[in-house]
Amino acid sequence: MLDEKITKELRKIVGDKNYLDTSEDLMNYSYDAFVPEARPEAVLLPLTTEQVSDIMKVAHREEIPVTPRGAGTNISGGSVPMRGGVVLAFTRMNRILEIKKEDRLAVVQPGVINAELQAEVEKRSLFYPPDPASMSVCTMGGNVAENAGGPRGVKYGVTRDYILGLTVVLPEGQIIRVGGRTAKNVTGIDLVGFFTGSEGTLGIITEITCKLLPKPEANQTMQAIFHDLDLAGKTVAKIMEEGMLPVALELMDSVVINLVEDSAHIGLPREAEGVLLIMMDGPQESVKLQVENIAQLCRDQGAAEVRIAKTPEEENALWFARRSAFGVMARSRPNCIVEDVTVPVSKVPTMVREIVAIARKYELVIGVLAHAGDGNMHPLLLTDEREKDEWERTQNAIRDIVLKAAELGGTLSGEHGIGMAKNQFLDLVMDKETRRFMGKIKKAVDPKRILNPGKFV
Amino acid sequence: MIMRSKVLLSEHTKENLYHCNKCGLCLQACPVYKELLVESASPRGKVQLCKHVLEGDMNLSKKVNDILFSQCLLCGSCVAACPSGVHQDELFSGLRWRATQRYGIDWSKKVLFQTLSHKWIMYGSTWFVKWARKLFSGPWIESKIKLGNLPVDGIPPFNPKPFNREFPEIVKPEGPPRAHILYFHGCATNYVFGDIGRAVVTVLSSMRVEVEIPGDQGCCGLPIFLSGDRETSLKSIQETVRLFARKDVDAVIVDCATCGSALRKEYSQILRELRDLGEDVEERLIKDAELLASKTRDISEFIDEHMDWLPEFPTTEGPVVRVTYHDPCHLLKGQNVGLQPRHILNSLPNVDFVEMDGADTCCGGGGEFQIDHPETSAAITNRKIKHIHQSGAEVVATGCPGCNITIRSHLDRSKVKVLHTVQLIQMAFKE
Fold it and tell me: For residue A330, which residues of chain B lie inside 8 Å, CB to CB?
């Protein structure tokens, strides 16, 4: 527990309603969507940048660990307070401050929910592309800190590509503003990139200026069914090789297809070994052409069947399987671990084969899902952390998957982050000098190591 | 049946708890979380709390008790949103039960629940009605007094006599009946919304459906159960199953979202849970509860299934009424009934149906929640009221007396009326 004097000081900064320290509340901020838990000593819900700055001054003076948190939906343990201290939860700092159509930008507080921002900008015919699976819940602050992605990443990239400027509170309490309100900006070191994806280890984001696009006129989805998983994987690489530009290019294997069909009975092809879900967007005429081209390519590659959605209902039906996949998988066992290794697109077929082999080796049920168009694999490992033997096999399988991805020139995480989940594997993809360089930066920015300690830097 | 077991939850419910992946997708579904924006108010937070209590590293403290009661409407939105199939409602009501055993239950609730569960009072005795009328609308209550979040002057007056005294037990239609149904009217229709009951009987009769209204029916027991008073609620469940689980009827029709989800979903689940806990529950009772579940239909669902039985609507050019619809949690999330009332409303002459924003979000009532926890409730209700007024509707249709009371008490009643969907059908015939 924090001592009385500090408690009083912090309580005064945020007010009684925004200071929590009952044992029940502390338990409730001990977890995110990853497995391990650790309890903080107090939870603060700041409402302004100034409050955050005042909190950091106290924390720095007293060397209290600080772990920032959005909605706590990340699956890498990024918001678990490993060393205790205080959790700064941003859920109440949740206003959209500005949406400016001419400048194509929005300014938001960190607690704004991704889907709420999307809905607001779409009312004005604008578009914010990053669409993590948890978008109905996750916050913009968390998205920036984790550099979140999503299915639309194939065409539109990730959060980093849409951040123009940030207000950041540094570990000693100074408030800085990095980037700005322009799409082009090379004034100084790229500090927006520096903080985006830093997982709360370098500074605390309290205001975000994000870039918006005009909303595409139309979009259309198709499904290509393959009797050979390898062919599906190769088709992904071929689509990218041919210079096509799908919004989303998703892959599901037979484990996923059959589990979804078991629970939803929506007429998915049970005999299929692999299904691709492909979405195109743009002006109406262009979408039509793109879909025809890509459908032809799939057939040439050996697709057994290609279904093109003609109505919004059919569109929804095609996406239903993909959207419900996680839930259906999660329902079937107590734990469902979502892996996140990412490989160059040309290696997608190999990686898919390897995952299937690893599942067999460790006698585990692993469903293969992937944002295949950008090589971002999401194998879903079904397990039960209370079963010692099974849990150990799961850990080994994860290790094998990660090793294989590294060997193929891939990376540990495409969009979920390192946090506590992948710390142990960093050396596989990052040389000593690079890690040392990250360490130097951390030391210079946060000499007392109070920001999100116990994580990857 | 005596409650002997001291185990908190059955193995089945306990195992289900471990399916919570802590993914957090329930946060946006929870009306209480969206207001308070702290983790303890979220379904995920409450599930984790229950887990720690069950594992023994956290006490079933007064604070846990308060969280389970004051930060949960038991609306079931989280159950519907959970990708992992966690049944938060079963979990929370189980722990509420134990918390109630430990911390007791408010005396006024105790009186009310005992009253509701005892058939001898429910027989249509006017005693209860008199008592309630006096309690809620006597001259000694200032009209500005609020029952928690609920302004007293917004509560509709009690029926002059209980609804089930107005009709014979069997109401025969003109002409040969197309179906024979049992009508479970629940407490709200019996004591407050007699108009809704009359609309149900009139519309069903016009469809040539024979309506049987078992005279000694009582409370469905769900509000009592959810408040943690399981012993009392069981009496209601047993009685209702005894009266309504009948093979020889075509359907059991319910006009209340909460009663409907009780008869249809909760009974067999509750009875099974109790048996798993070691209570003496006969297999026969569970089988009967399942039979009842299979026969139960919400009134809007039944009418929608048999639209062709309705007589032609009169085609006179009347004024067009703008109508919107509020989804009761226990109807949409509890019974998956949402399209049917909209379909009906769209087919009524002189009704201009408009969808409001957030039609499927909770009204903030949650039974006694609004009385016990006025601040949170008020914040949720205000959002709903704003959406209703923004829709420009003159009538809000809904299928739950609880939502009806909550919404009408806060609306600008000079501009907007609250009616049951079935009342709008009845009105279409009058025109």
Answer: 19, 21, 23, 83-85
Q: Are A208 and A192 in contact (CB under 8 A)?
A: no
Which of B21, B58, B85 is closest, CB to CB, to A23? B58
Residue A322: predicted pLDDT: 83
Query: Is the pLDDT confidence value at A318 over 90?
Result: no
Look up the CATH number of domain B312-430.
Answer: 3.40.50
Show residues of chain A in contact with B25, CB under 8 Å.
73, 134, 136-137
pLDDT at B199: 95
Asked whether the predicted pLDDT for residue A314 surpasses 50, the reply is yes
pLDDT of A316 higher than 70: yes
Amino acid at B232: T
| Contacts with B85 from chain A: Cβ below 8 Å | 327, 330-331
Report how far residue B193's alpha carbon sits from residue B230's, in angstroms, rounded to the nearest whole number: 27
Residue B372 has which token pair?
A: 């016990």
The ranges of chain B with pLDDT < 70 are: 1-7, 104-157, 367-368, 370-372, 431
Query: A21 and chain B: CB distance < 8 Å anywhere?
Result: no
For residue B124, the model assigns a pLDDT of 41
The CATH T-level fold of domain A4-89 is: 3.30.43
Provide the token pair at B89.
């409602």
Q: Which of B22, B37, B85 sits opposite A31 (nearest CB)?
A: B22
Predicted confidence (pLDDT) per residue in A334-369, tens digit: 888 999 999 999 999 999 999 999 999 999 999 999
CATH of A218-407, one of 3.40.462.10, 3.40.50.2300, 3.30.70.120, 3.40.190.10: 3.40.462.10
Q: What is the ipTM of this complex?
A: 0.92
pLDDT above 90 (res A291): yes
What distances in angstroms separate CA A163 from CA A118, A191, A198, B67, one per listed residue?
15, 11, 14, 38
- Alpha-carbon gap, residue A60 to A46, rounded angstroms: 17
In chain B, where the domains are located = 11-103, 109-304, 312-430
CATH code for the domain defined by A96-214 = 3.30.465.10
- For B84, the closest chain A residue by CA position comes to A331
Q: State the Cα–Cα distance between residues B343 and B341, nearest whole angstrom.
A: 5
> Can you name the residues that pair with A98 across neighbouring β-strands?
A107
Name the closest residue on chain B to residue A29, using Cα atoms: B39
Amino acid at B256: C
Which of A89-103, A184-198, A315-329 has the least mean pLDDT? A315-329
Closest CA to A129 of A97, A107, A161, A99: A161
* Chain A 151-210, residues with CB within 8 Å of chain B CB atoms: none
CB of B85 less than 8 A from some CB of A: yes
0.90 cut: is pTM over it?
Answer: no
The CATH architecture that domain B11-103 belongs to is Orthogonal Bundle (1.10)
Q: Taking the domains of chain A in order of start, what are their residue ranges?
A: 4-89, 96-214, 218-407
Q: Would an 8 Å CB–CB cutoff place B45 in contact with chain A? A: yes
Evaluate whether B295 touches B251 at the Cβ level (below 8 Å): yes
Q: Chain B contact for A323, CB < 8 A?
A: no
A279 Cβ under 8 Å from any chain B Cβ: no
